[in-house]
Amino acid sequence: QITLKESGPTLVKPTQTLTLTCTFSGFSLSTSGVGVGWIRQPPGKTLECLAVIYWNDDKRYSPSLKSRLTITKDTSKNQVVLTMTNMDPVDTATYYCAHRLIASPDRSFDYWGQGTLVTVSS
Amino acid sequence: DIQMTQSPSTLSASVGDRVTITCRASQSISTWLAWYQQKPGKAPKLLIYKASSLESGVPSRFSGSGSGTEFTLTISSLQPDDFATYYCQQFHSYLTFGGGTKVEIK
After folding, report:
1. A114, pLDDT greater than 80
2. Any residues with CB less than 8 A from the CB of A107 and at least 6 apart, and which?
3. For A24, phi and psi rounded to 5 degrees?
4. Average pLDDT value for residue range A96-115
5. A29, A61, B4, B57 — which has fewest CB within 10 A?
6. Chains A and B: how many Cβ contacts under 8 Å?
7. Residue from A27, A35, A117, A98 nearest B44 by CA
8. What residues of B are in contact with residue A107 (Cβ under 8 Å)?
9. Which residues of chain B have pLDDT under 50?
10. Residue B92, number of CB atoms within 10 A of its CB
């Protein structure tokens, strides 16, 4: 059974750096084809994929946010960490992590965490 | 970047109605498209992948079709549990979502 759970601060100040952790079970990030992504959703708005990291340490970032994002993995702890610098009130959103398997068939993001709401305010 | 455009943004329908949602890609994505259902306060749930493959456990009243730049999600007979927001997502080049379609009670 695959599960993912996001953790991190619920409130950050403008200009601060946000660090979110995705802790997962039921799969390994050392298995070929496996990836974990971070997706956010501002209140009342659509979803935006921020970053994805794969089993081979390949990393893909949103082109518009690439300069502010870093995604890393700790395979031994079954964790993926996302950092986002220079936070702004427009970054207020629910942040999700999700499982991906780029195998045949590729089902995109098939398992999601419950999400964590991050508010950016002074 | 590949842009995904969904229509309509809101759809009012009754239980038993046949519902169709359209998603257009700004360039060809072959069949690298997924559909998700999201209810308030919950994470998205995968319904369809590779444009027309039904995710395990998803009712057969949901179906997807299309290739290239035009895709549709159809609910053959709307059920009370189906009132939600639906998103398309391309995974041909990076991953981007459409703006969403809210299906509400008429």
Report:
1. yes
2. A101, B34, B46, B49, B50, B53, B55
3. -130, 165
4. 93
5. B57
6. 58
7. A98
8. 34, 46, 49-50, 53, 55
9. none
10. 15
